[in-house]
Amino acid sequence: MAGLKQLLLVTLVLCAHQLISGYSFKNCIAEPYSRGTLFNCIRRKETNISAIIEDLPPSVVNLTITINPLRHIPSYSFVHLPNIQHLRIDHNHLRNISQSAFQYLHQLKSLNLSFNYISELSPDAFKDLHNLTFLSLTNNKLKQLPEKIFFSLINLNTLLIRQNLLTNFSGIAKSVSNLTNLKILNLCFNHLTSLRHSNVSLPKSLTKLYVCRNNLSTLGCEPSFLSFIKFLDLSYNSQLLATAFQGVDLRQIIYLHLRSTSVKVVEFLKVSNISASHVDFSGTGLNNESLLVDLCKLLKTRVKWIKNFNLGSNRIRNLTKLSLQNCPKIKGALDLSLNELKRISCLNFLNSHRDIKSFDAEHNHLTYLPTCKTRSVVYFQNLEELSYRYNRILSVNSYAFYHTPNIKQLKLNINTIAFLHRKALKGLKRLETLRLDNNLLTDLFNDTFEDNINLHILNLRNNRISVIFNGTFLKLSNLTTLDLGGNKITHFEHSGLDGLKSLSKFYLDGNNLKQIDPSLFRAFQQTLTALDLQSNQIAFFNEKTTCSPFVNLRKLSDLKLDGQRPHGLTVIPPNFFKGLHSLKSLYLTNNNIVLLPPNAFDDLTGLHFLTLDNCCVGAVNLQPGVFKNLRNVTKLIVENMGIQNFSKEVFGNLTKLHILQLNRNVMQQIQVNALESLPNLHYLDIRGIPLSCTCKNNLLQNWTLNNTNVQVVFLYTLSCEHDKKIKFYNFDTKVCYIDLGEYLFFCTAAVVFLFTVTPLLYVKLYWKMKYSYYVFCAWFREQWRKLREEEENCKYDAFISYNSSDEQWIMDQLVPNLEGNGSSFKLCLHHRDFELGRYIVDNIVSAVYSSRKTICVVSRNFLQSEWCSLEIQLASYRLFDEHRDVLVLVFLEPISERQLSSYHRMRKVMLKKTYLQWPGLDCTDPALAQDLFWNQLRRAMRTGSKLKTEENQQSEGCVTTESEETEHFETSDENYYLLP
């Protein structure tokens, strides 16, 4: 019955998940390209694991839940994720794990619970994990293990329980005794005092046992208890003595580590049956020559030769020819690292071990390497690897490696080498890898590397080289990797890089280069694939550039230009990347670019990865077409660029884009059509963008919730900019949609109501309505009369309507002729008489109705002004609807009938009334024509504003046609039509 309930619970959870639409997760990120199988849930603030993983799909295979404040894993936490194979829940605050926490995870292969605070485990905590092969409980608070806790883990291969508080080895042995596939058991950093056990044996499959850094003083185990172990680490058990191994079968051991114990190796070898060549003698107190001699004599009685002889961490200060003379032949490696050697005397102390292949003297006190081209020198023809890293070497003399002519790998890095003799590397014709990084070298010469013709990798990083002289690398025709990063290089001499015909990877980051010389790449322009120029002093201050420095690098696939000092690249010239058709990755971060020209990336047709984060200054408006040729880009990082616009015109051509990181920009809106133009987009990061929770983004909200192809990172935690408590995914968008159905219902109801009620009202209230109509007419006539009386006391004689571009004619001509020269008219001018702080529309209405006349000064500019259009409409309203003669048209320039065709209100006025036209300077007598113009305008302003009806005109005997009203004046060939 309980099983049925659990199965029902699984089904309900899976069904609930299937109802969720969209492709975003509250607390996890699906790794790009993983197709929903790999998820990371890192640095979340949730204390409940179900809140972190409840919305994950059943397709999850790899799940990482780290650095979270989780304290408890309840039962059936992963029941909706039955396909998980790899699960990490490390670096959290876990204290308790429920008995059925991992129920139904039948596919799980690896489980990492390290770096938590687990102090106790239920016996059935892992009972359903039949396919588990890896389990880590490292760095917890476990004091003991339940006897049968691992019994169901029949396929377990690796078990790590290091850094806990375990004290009972017998309990551990019982818990793993049935694990027939267990190969690795790590119990280091616990509190074990012995390997005692009671009637139990370790699995025969176990080959590697780590019990380092415990409190072992004895082994205390049965003789055959370790008979299957091949790798045994007992190091850093300071109380362990040689007598502890007496009677214990160690014949199968191929590596025994006894560093920092109290075991005396000579005594140990006498009481133990282990093969002497399988013991690591590092850290066993062999700090003087007599102890070494005794050890060698004993070893020689056991074996004829030894493959690897590790004597590290023994505080050895000096070695002579006698020190290792009695040792078995060393045919593999000799490790003397972490000692106190001050000199190695051309390895003469290895006179009897000339077949050695590798020599390691790292972490010693060597201060110099002497000349080894002498008669007494011993030659090591088979030596291939030589390491002097982490010493205090200040100088390397000539022929320092003459005694090791066949070495292929030489490590001199992380020293203080300030002097490297020109002939220090002489004779090393088979050298393939040379490490000289992290030293104090200042100069390289044309014969420094002349013998190293087979060199493939040369690392000179973090020295103090400032100039590369001619011929320095002339003989290195096989060199494929050259690292000159972290130096002080300001320039290369003309032939400084000649000879590098095979160079593929070139690192120049962290130098002081101020420009990129195209001739720099002349020798290897056909082979170079990676070029690192980041953190130099390259900058451009304008768009002008003669040619691209990369134009001939046809095979370059990786280019780094980020972080130019001190102020970045500043400008990218239009053709800067010309010719880089094979480029796959481009890095331009932290460059303070103020201008990205629209053709900057036109030649990068093969680009797959582009990062521009923190590359620009302030807010950036990316120009349309800037990414138009980047159709092969699959990952674009444009974080913190200050981008203001995300539009289809800018990003629409990125048709193969999979990953887009837009976070920490300043756009308030993201156009959905721009996102829809990216058909292959699967990962979108918009964290830190101040998206407005308004109707501008209602389509974006809908898109993020219903798009099943694009993962929007942490969509459910994105907040609205105006209120952090409101989430973007669920802000109210109802106001953004018009409910047409509701509006149509009310309109239809109103029409039906009117058609129903109107006939009833007509029948019942006909006479009352008619009476009310006449009363209203009487009241309206009274109000009209009062308005006419008020007009007689108008504040202005005329309101001048004009465009500001005609203001000079108004001030120079109109105002002096109407307000001056004895005319005494009072004009209303908007720049002079409008009330400050009042709405413009209110000022216009007041001016029109406070003036007896409105004079419209018409020009082409006037016709294009919205305010002028409003003024003439108000004046024409008074003309037509109030029958008041208040409008005067003055044309400053000839305007054709076609140009007036769209201004029907003005054409209607021109058909009803005549108008004035200002005479130009090209007429026969301009002065006479202008005097006549002003007389007619004054006459028009003095006429009453009340239009006479046809009957009134007939009674006065002055009825005329429109053509008779118009007075026609001729001056030369100009016609002026004036108002009577």
UniProtKB/TrEMBL annotation:
The keyword Signal applies. Residues 1-22 form the signal peptide. Residues 945-965 are annotated as: Disordered. The keyword Phosphoprotein does not apply. It is found in: Membrane. The chain crosses the membrane at residues 743-763. Residues 794-941 form the TIR domain. It is a single-pass type I membrane protein. It comes from the Eukaryota. GO terms for molecular function: signaling receptor activity. GO terms for cellular component: plasma membrane. GO terms for biological process: inflammatory response; innate immune response; toll-like receptor signaling pathway. Keywords: Glycoprotein, Immunity, Inflammatory response, Innate immunity, Leucine-rich repeat, Membrane, Receptor, Repeat, Signal, Transmembrane, Transmembrane helix. Pfam families: LRR_8, TIR. Belongs to the Toll-like receptor family. This is Toll-like receptor 13.
